[in-house]
Amino acid sequence: MTKTVAEVMTPNPITVTPQTSLQEAIQVIAEKKISGLPVVDDSNKLVGVISETDLMWQETGIDPPPYIMFLDSVIYLQNPNRHEKLVHKVLGQTVGEVMTNKPITVKPSQTIREAAQLMTDHKIGRILVTDDTDEKVIGIITRGDIIRAMAAT
């Protein structure tokens, strides 16, 4: 029988809010040796996720978007909105300015096979688990959780 997400997830993950300072989030990630944190509103409803990848922009910065000049006009070769979002990640001071919106989620009743497929499809190492009714964060499942479940069978 296939295990469910609820059977292997880590319940009650550490969370932050959009107003949490980036420095505080960095400290939590470093001290707890985790790769990301769910971002929740005042009622614990999921609004985003902040990961090591989101934080790396703070250190690496960004390059200006490629463009060409044609008849005194600037033509961007990339979507300028994407560049603007990256600028906010580099300059952001709070979790809300840097987090990834609309993270991938699973329900506790889904199988670990479904969670593994989502991780593979989206090239992510963790998925937040939300309850069935109001999108409140109740857990997190990582690649490591799935591997440990595979080893236990």
Share in helix: 25-40%
Number of helices: 7
Number of domains: 1
Instruction: Return the CATH topology.
Output: CBS-domain
How would you describe this protein?
By secondary structure, the protein is an alpha+beta fold. The chain has one domain: Roll (CBS-domain). Helix content is 39%, strand content 24%. The chain contains seven helices and nine strands; from the N terminus they run H-E-H-E-E-H-E-E-H-H-E-E-H-E-E-H. The strands form three sheets. A four-stranded mixed β-sheet has the order 1-9-8-7. A three-stranded antiparallel β-sheet has the order 2-3-6. The longest helix is centred in the middle third of the chain and has 12 residues, at 80-91. It starts with a helix and ends with a helix. The model has no long low-confidence stretch (mean pLDDT 83).
Descriptive terms for the model:
153 residues; 9 strands; single chain; CBS-domain; 39% helix; alpha+beta; 3-stranded antiparallel sheet
